[in-house]
Design brief:
single chain; about 250 residues; Rossmann fold; 9 helices; globular
Amino acid sequence: MSANPKNMVKVFERPASLTDAKFTYCPGCHHGLLTRIIGNVLDELDIADRTVGIAPVGCSVFAYLWYKADSQQVPHGRACAVATGIKRARPELIVFSYQGDGDFASIGTAESIHAANRGENITVIFVNNQIYGMTGGEMAPTTLVDQKTTTTPLGRDPKVAGYPIRFSEMIATLDTPIYVTRQALFDTKHIMDTTKAIKKAFQNQVDGKGYSLVEVLSTCPTNWRMSPVQSNKHVGETVTKVFPLGDLVDRG
């Protein structure tokens, strides 16, 4: 029996802070879900009109298309440096960077570490899918041991390439970050946990508390050569063993 449209109730609205532009992310990728979560948080905190998003080279490169907020596209790895400059010049603005693992934890290592060490009052969203998603599926700093990529076709060998870098744990050793957490999006519970963490990270900035980092474990079905279902299972069963979930620092 078909449902009567007159009796149907809309239970979900597109976040008001998102544009009508269609996402260009690959099917099954968590970037679209994470972008929506950030949009919902901007709505809930009513800060979209004074928010600036920073997106570098990577899968997030077109982020300026998604948000009804000011955005800045920056060179690969330089997001935290640009975010610092904007926040210091206009401290009343809410500034967040949206970075992948290759950007945040590889080419941008210096900028990432020192912005955290200075305790800049910015919010950093760090998307960790253990691979370079946009440029061809190369090995990233977070690539798992034995994981196959286009530059490690036989799997990552720690004797040659080292071990996956737990970048959030490195940031957590510093004295200045106010909030450092690692979350994931592979099921409903963890989507809710990630939403709470991102809202807390933005609220910390609104309250002037200092630097917040939310690492989010994400899928990359295209470069992992997995289906979306397989990718979610892989994150929940394998990736979280290397990158444990939870708060590493909470000085709020």
